[in-house]
Amino acid sequence: MERLIFDESHDMFRATARRFFEAEIGPHALRWREQGFVDREAFLKAGEAGLLLLWADAKYGGAGIEDFRYEQIIIEENARYGDQCFFATLHSRLVGPYLGKLGTDEQKARWLPGAIRGERILGIAMTEPGAGSDLAGMRARAVRDGDDWVLTGSKTYISNGQIGDCFVVAARTDPEQRYGIGLFVLEDGMPGFRRGRRLKKIGLHAQDTSELFFDGVRVPATNVLGDPAKGFGYLKHFLAEERLVGAAMYVSNASIAFDLTLDWVKERRMFGRSLGAFQNTRFKMAQMRAEIDALQAFVDHCVTLHNAGKLGVDLAAKAKLLCSELEGRVTDECVQLHGGAGYMEEYRVARMYTDARISRIYAGTSEVMREIIARSLGLDERKMS
Ligand SMILES: Cc1cc2nc3c(=O)[nH]c(=O)nc-3n(C[C@H](O)[C@H](O)[C@H](O)COP(=O)(O)OP(=O)(O)OC[C@H]3O[C@@H](n4cnc5c(N)ncnc54)[C@H](O)[C@@H]3O)c2cc1C
After folding, report:
1. Within 10 Å of residue 45's Cβ, how many Cβ atoms?
2. Where is 224: in which H helix or E strand?
3. Backbone region of residue 169 per phi and psi (left: phi > 0; alpha: psi in -120 to 50; beta: other values)
4. Phi, then psi, of 134 in degrees rounded to 5
5. How far is CA 380 from the centre of its chain?
6. 66 ligand 1 Cβ < 6 A
7. SS3 letters for 261-317?
8. Whose CA is nearest to atom 22 of ligand 1?
9. Which pLDDT belongs to residue 289?
10. Ligand 1 centre from 232 Cα, in Å?
11. Distance from residue 82's CA to the centre of ligand 1 (Å)
12. What contacts 99, CB < 8 A, 6 or more positions away?
């Protein structure tokens, strides 16, 4: 399907990004999946290529490009030619903006240049063993003590948990207020801050999803982002963009799995003809292509709205919901069309199938997305019962 949101400068940027992912990420993906994490060097190389925190101001070493289409291109090219486990978008677009939009000039000068160069890898720690969808139920606590805050508690399922140097950590600052949460920047080496296990997962094997522990970590007040009572509002604000990032990634993944399968069904022969000649195959492929194209058009529209500052939380939730569900259905159908080969890890489609399972869970589950959409329709259980 022809896409109309990109111009010549985007096409040139896409060609550069493609060369980078083909040369520096794709060839290492299988080794990283074996070792369970991405080499730090990958971030350094992405930094050298100017592909990290594109939006950051030139005075910190960034390109000052706010246009989300460039990030969309990075997401698409990484998905196709790199590897989804190289979670540069988490670093650049899901965590970086907390520092860039909430940070003071002093904080930005301290953290952004290293992050832009890929020397300081970023992560975000919201989820706890007892609080995921219900973030307001978090138990990690930060108590003010002189010029510091003392942080105690733990987080789990944190991406970049082992290779990360700098984490935005959400912790309760007011035990009386359900939404009294602050955001604290924890840096590698702070006494009392330690990493737990690299968790074994069913997919995304090169993403180092980990536990983090805070045993009375003294965090200087200069490491607090914004107002320490308003963290919940900040999280909600940034989650809208996170869901658009997700939607762009999931629809790309669906399209890649589709392309791999189109080649496969044309090649694979049985009963004297190609697998693609059976009506079942042709109809399944036709249905998938139609759905992918429709959602790609929707995502592109959301990107245009986001660039205009008009992407609402409910629309971002619709995009995240539909694209993650589509990715799940498409990768499942594609495995089916590959037969036994689709169950073998050596086939990319098998890896895409297990990788895709998380898309309906992280960055807000499908059920949470439906709640957000229902509330935007005036169907808010809290106000109706
Ligand atoms: C690979 C991976 C990477 C991750 N990376 C990060 C990270 O970098 N940083 C971070 O902070 N977190 C991260 N997470 C955590 C992720 O965001 C959470 O797992 C997710 O938000 C779901 O929370 P939970 O696991 O506590 O599930 P729960 O919230 O316990 O959900 C269990 C079930 O309850 C359902 N449910 C919840 N609320 C409702 C409702 N209102 N109505 C109906 N059903 C409901 C859910 O949809 C789900 O089906 C990651 C997780 C994984 C697996």
Report:
1. 16
2. strand 224-225
3. beta
4. -95, 75
5. 28
6. no
7. HHHHHHHCEECCEEHHHCHHHHHHHHHHHHHHHHHHHHHHHHHHHHHCCCCCHHHHH
8. 132
9. 98
10. 16
11. 26
12. 107, 108, 111, 112, 115, 122, 168, 185, 225
Find all residues with CB under 8 Å of 18, minimum gap 6, and list them. 77, 81
Centre of ligand 1 from the C-alpha of residue 58, in Å: 36
In angstroms, what is the span from residue 20 Cα to ligand 1's centroid?
Answer: 32
The question of whether 325 is a catalytic residue gets the answer no
Contact (Cβ atoms closer than 8 angstroms) between residue 141 and residue 181? no
Question: Is the pLDDT assigned to residue 381 strictly greater than 90?
Answer: no
CB of 158 within 6 A of ligand 1: the answer is: yes
Query: How confident is residue 240, by pLDDT bands cut at 50, 70 and 90?
Result: confident
Question: Alpha-carbon Rg of the chain, whole angstroms?
Answer: 21
Encoded amino acid at 138, one letter? M
Q: Helices H, strands E: what count in the chain?
A: 13, 10
Question: From CA 236, how far away is CA 146, in angstroms rounded?
Answer: 29
User: Cα(150) to centroid of ligand 1, in Å?
Assistant: 26
Query: For 170-185, how does the pLDDT look when each residue is reduced to its tens digit (9 = 90+)?
Result: 999 998 999 999 999 9
Over the stretch 103-130, which tens digit does the pLDDT of each residue have?
A: 999 999 999 999 999 999 999 999 999 9
For ligand 1, atom 17, which residue shows the shortest CA distance? 362
Residue 50 predicted with pLDDT over 90: yes
Residue 96 above 90 pLDDT? Answer: yes
Average pLDDT over residues 36-57: 98
For the entire predicted model, the pTM comes to 0.97
The verdict on the CB of residue 32 being under 6 Å from ligand 1 is no
Question: Active-site residue among 76, 211, 242, 291?
Answer: 242
d(CA 104, CA 112): 11
- Give the separation between CA 356 and CA 349, rounded to whole angstroms: 10
CB-ligand 1 contact for 133 (6 Å cutoff): yes
What is the residue with the minimal CA distance to atom 51 of ligand 1?
157
Instruction: Pick the atom of ligand 1 nearest to 201's CA.
Output: 1
